[in-house]
Amino acid sequence: MNSLDGTLILSVYKRWTSILNSQTYWLKQDTEDLIRDALEIQSTVVQCFGKLISSGYWKERAFNLRTLAFVIMLLNFLFLRQMCESDSRRLLVGNIHVLYNPNRGEVKLGQIRFLLSRAQILSEKWGNTPVVLAGDFNSTPESGIYKFLSSSELNIMLYDRKELSGQKSCRPAQVLGEKKETVGPFISLDGLFKCWTDEEVKIATGDSERHFAVHPLKLNSSYATVNGSTSTRGFNGEPLATSYHSKFLGTVDYLWYSDGIVPTRVLDTVPISDLLRAGGLPCKKVGSDHLALVSEFSFSVTNNKSIEIVEAAASPGIDIEEHDSLQS
């Protein structure tokens, strides 16, 4: 077996990590500086990659840390080179898995608010780059948290923090109508004020004396924007269900997008009847307790040309009883 040129790889590795691992680099240097540094070591990166492949090293032993760092370094370079193209466009993509616990609405709201704030900062830094935020938000379309995402603000005092996510109304028996939900006593507005401590308000809004949670992005949901089949969509356009297990049947997953892009089509989910026949998720054909959400986006145009939005029914559907390749 030929050995890798360790000295060459190590020199590139040190150069690249000095750029990417500095905690202050991204704050003090602009994108053009980073791209210039990447271009300066382009030939060295390509040479090292050639040695890595030709040596057969990756076939005969597991990657060590140095080799792994080199591969990551190369991918970073290819990404930066793509950004250099004059006709390239940027897109900021974020992902989140919000806390599940239905009783901790203030934590859920705080996590989402922080994500949106950071996304806005990065978007502005990169010239108001359009944003896509995906993930398991552990909140239903009827919830206060969904309203916060779609309207950019929420008066938390109008909600019980334990009901802020809407999850407690989505137990399978409740959704399927097998058991009527017990309606509790009416809670006055004064009562709602008392159910939030100062610490919980601070977590939710960022300020213990501010009762409005706000975020700077104007967001829309891909699935709510693109029409779909009535057998898979709710009244607001969201899927009827993206998750199904013993404690929950409903939608908690979304693809949110900001100004600058529009969804042209989405991959529809499956009817609840199919989920019931599967007996819940995960199942033999689906290895996750969530269904996949897929959306195709186009950059918005500045002229008078319109972007065609295709109904989801025109996209290939998902049949969990026939397709083995479905992934979450």
Q: Please, could you describe this protein's structure?
A:
This protein is an alpha+beta fold. The protein contains 13 helices and ten strands. A four-stranded mixed β-sheet has the order 1-2-8-5. Strands 3-4 form a two-stranded antiparallel ribbon. It has a two-stranded antiparallel ribbon with strand order 6-7. Helix 4 packs across helix 6. The longest helix is centred in the middle third of the chain and has 21 residues. It starts with 5 loop residues before the first helix and ends in a 29-residue tail after the last strand.
Keywords:
alpha+beta, about 325 residues, about 40% helix
Multimeric status of the protein = single chain
Spatial order of the strands in the main sheet? 1-2-8-5
Q: Based on Cα principal axes, name the global outline.
A: globular
Strand content: 5-15%
What is the mean predicted local confidence, pLDDT?
A: 77
Low-confidence runs of at least 5 consecutive residues: 1-5, 22-31, 179-188, 313-317, 322-328
Kindly state the percentage of residues in helix.
Answer: 25-40%
Find the structural class using helix and strand composition. alpha+beta
For the terminal residues, how far apart are their CA atoms?
39 Å
Summarize the biggest pleated sheet. Answer: 4 strands, mixed
Q: SSE order, as H and E? A: HHHHHHEHEHEHHHEEHEEEEHE
Total strand segments: 10
- Specify the number of helices: 13
What is the gyration radius calculated from CA atoms?
24 Å
Please outline what is shown here.
The protein is of the alpha+beta class.
